[in-house]
Design goal:
The protein has helices spanning 3-14, 34-46, 55-72, 86-99, 102-129, 131-135, 161-176, 192-206, 211-220, 227-236, 241-247, 251-267, 288-301, and strands at 30-31, 80-81, 141-144, 150-156, 180-186, 274-277, 280-283. It has a 5-stranded mixed β-sheet, with helices on both faces. A two-stranded antiparallel ribbon has the order 1-2. It is built from 13 helices and 7 strands. The two termini are 47 Å apart. The longest helix has 28 residues, at 102-129. It is α+β, with helices and mostly antiparallel strands and 311 residues long. It has 2 domains: 3-115, no CATH class; 131-301, 3-Layer(aba) Sandwich (Glutaredoxin), CATH 3.40.30. It is 58% helix and 10% strand.
Length: 311
Amino acid sequence: MRRIETAILFVLAVVGGAVGSAWYFHSAPVRTDRQAVEAIVESALAKQPKPTLDTAGVRSIVTDMLTAEDAKNKQNSIATVASLDQRTLDPMIEDYLTSNPKILQRMTDALDRQNKADQALRDKQVISQNSQAIFDDPDNVVLGNPKGDVTLVEMFDYNCSFCRGALPDLAQLLSDDKGLKVELKQFPILSAGSVDAARIALQVGKSGKDYWTFHQALYTTRGEVDLQTALNEAKTLGLDPNALKANMQSAGISSALQKSYDLAKTLNVSGTPTYIIGDEIIPGAVPLDQLKAAIANMRACGSAVSCPPAG
């Protein structure tokens, strides 16, 4: 894509419009000098992006601005045309953006803010639609306070190095926050060994044994976590490795894993660890302070994303 085409797309994206191969405005006579082009760009940036603004809305904004400019500069009315197309605007907008390169950063920042707001809204909607599968799945392992006032869900893989690195933070949260309920959801995606370990882990979770001890043992073992690793640790809890192995391919175990895969697809989750709290999806091994802030927001206003503005 040519540089000027990229610039035009940036300008229109900021106000939520669209550009095509024959982009133009039907309007009253308008000026096409440098001052008019600068006004087009500045006006576009000044407008608050609105998700529902369509191409007609963009045309209206620019037409209104140009009409106002003509009223102030009637002496230039002779040098006007009835439409603006790319061939006319390209060199003028390119010249303006080249002379003011920081404007592209302003556009990028505006788009980034809008994209984050849109993503937060999508996350909120999809979590609401799938809250039972996320927070009330009987195959989740519950740690901490089962009746806690805040629930943190972690989707994880036993061969995920980032999950391993985040384990001390999870331990710190469980130790410090007696009102926190943590739910662990198996999401083995990294290897066949991860899947086998998860099949054993699901059974350990149903056994009534100390799952937290099992969980820590698997993350602190050396090398890849696989079937034998999980069986060995389950045996230390008093469980029968042979019975666990015989049951690992049962319909119930396979169904539990499939539920996690289906949920991940619905939530657009593709990596581990992924945390879910309130109406927010937090991807990756984020700092402990970020998790604490999300928990604090849940207690303060019932939302992990942000508290509503005062008043």
